[in-house]
């Protein structure tokens, strides 16, 4: 049986032999994700924000595999982000999708159009079953639960940004357990550590003024291009570099002004609502409150073990819902 050695920068090496996993990994839609940055426009203005959707999708699959998930759930992990547009969630800000679900609305269509559906059928698999993510509790869970998607993007984004070491990531992964189909954390210390890292992810990365400004500034350029007929909505499904090139070649003065700001050295400050601002930005409110497996076998919420941390998350949630007023530093 043919095998392929898969190398993931965070989770290490893994030999895959399942033909369908290898076929999907090497398919054009999955390979396209190598050109889609997970953090949107952030990589243009801030170092360490160069994670790709391919890397994340592979990581989710490998984590599901590590936790004992079956072949179909692993495939669901590979496919869950395949419909992301260029620059990921920038499309959500462009279309005011505050649930950040634009890509989910197009998932089935993108897969059908790409030929992946026919590929899966040829291998005896049902696309509808695989894409019924409610069937796969390791892959997806509503907040505040842990799931492979949430765990991977937290650890991966923070690691790429220099906040975590490989040793810290591996130590936490070793604390993960599966109980009644759900991911739980063995031990109070590991659970509280992860929640603190999640708060850091949201505050220092997702809600950082520089990152929000870059995403909304790019969304503004895309809105101009769509309104002027310089781009079609279908063009959003290009890779980042190609879409950016098309914007730059549009020769539209207002678009050029938007893009001119998206470079290292950009300085942005957050101001109050009653002050002059350049951009009002909102991101999806996010929190986690994992189940913790105690030594006596009981499962309790992390918030029951650290009330201060739970209160901190509520502050972050409130700020995300309120939005941020951003201004270029003069």
Number of domains: 1
In CATH's first tier, which class applies? Mainly Alpha
- State the helix count: 16
Give the CATH superfamily.
Hypothetical protein af1432
Number of strands: 9
Strand order of the largest sheet: 3-4-7-8
What proportion strand? 5-15%
Q: What would you say the CATH architecture is?
A: Orthogonal Bundle
Query: Would you identify the regions where 5 or more consecutive residues have pLDDT less than 50?
Result: none
* Rg, alpha carbons: 20 Å
- SS content category: alpha+beta
- CATH level 3 topology: Hypothetical protein af1432
Largest sheet, if any?
Answer: 4 strands, mixed
Series of H and E elements: EEHHHHHHHHHHHEEHHHHEEEEHE
Q: Could you estimate the helical fraction of the residues in percent?
A: 40-55%
What would you note in describing this structure?
The chain has 330 residues and is an alpha+beta fold. The chain has one domain (8-209, 283-328): Hypothetical protein af1432, CATH 1.10.3210.10. The chain contains 16 helices and 9 strands. The strands form 3 sheets. It has a 4-stranded mixed sheet. It has a 3-stranded antiparallel sheet with strand order 5-9-6. Strands 1-2 form a two-stranded antiparallel ribbon. Strand 7 (291-293) and strand 8 (299-301) form a beta hairpin. The longest helix is centred in the middle third of the chain and has 19 residues, at 188-206. The radius of gyration is 20 Å and the shape is globular.
């Amino acid at each position: 049986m043919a095998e392929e050695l898969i190398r993931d920068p965070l989770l290490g090496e893994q030999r895959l032999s399942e033909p369908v996993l290898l076929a999907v990994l090497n398919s054009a839609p999955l390979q396209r994700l190598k050109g889609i940055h997970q953090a949107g426009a952030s990589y243009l203005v801030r170092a360490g924000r160069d994670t790709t959707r391919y890397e994340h999708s592979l990581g989710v699959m490998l984590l599901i595999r590590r936790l004992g998930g079956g072949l179909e759930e692993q495939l669901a992990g590979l496919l869950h982000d395949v419909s992301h547009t260029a620059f990921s969630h920038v499309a959500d800000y462009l279309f005011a999708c505050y649930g950040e679900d634009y890509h989910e609305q197009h998932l089935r269509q993108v897969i059908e159009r790409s030929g992946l559906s026919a590929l899966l059928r040829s291998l005896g698999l049902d696309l509808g079953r695989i894409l019924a993510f409610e069937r796969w509790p390791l892959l997806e869970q509503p907040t505040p639960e842990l799931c492979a998607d949430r765990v991977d993007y937290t650890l991966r984004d923070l690691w790429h940004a220099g906040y975590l070491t490989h040793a810290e990531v591996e130590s936490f992964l070793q604390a993960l357990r599966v109980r009644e189909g759900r991911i739980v954390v063995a031990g109070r210390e590991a659970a509280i550590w992860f929640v603190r890292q999640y708060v850091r992810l949201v505050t220092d990365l997702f809600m950082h003024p520089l990152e929000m400004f870059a995403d909304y500034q790019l969304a503004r350029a895309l809105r101009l291009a769509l309104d002027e007929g310089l781009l079609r909505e279908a063009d959003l499904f290009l890779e980042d570099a190609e879409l950016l090139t098309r914007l730059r070649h549009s020769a539209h003065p207002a678009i050029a002004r938007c893009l001119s700001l998206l470079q290292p050295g950009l300085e942005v400050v957050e101001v109050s609502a009653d002050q002059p601002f350049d951009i009002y930005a909102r991101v999806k409110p996010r929190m986690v409150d994992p189940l913790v497996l105690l030594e006596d076998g009981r499962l309790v919420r992390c918030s029951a073990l650290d009330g201060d941390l739970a209160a901190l998350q509520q502050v972050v949630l409130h700020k995300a819902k309120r939005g941020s007023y951003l201004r270029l530093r003069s």
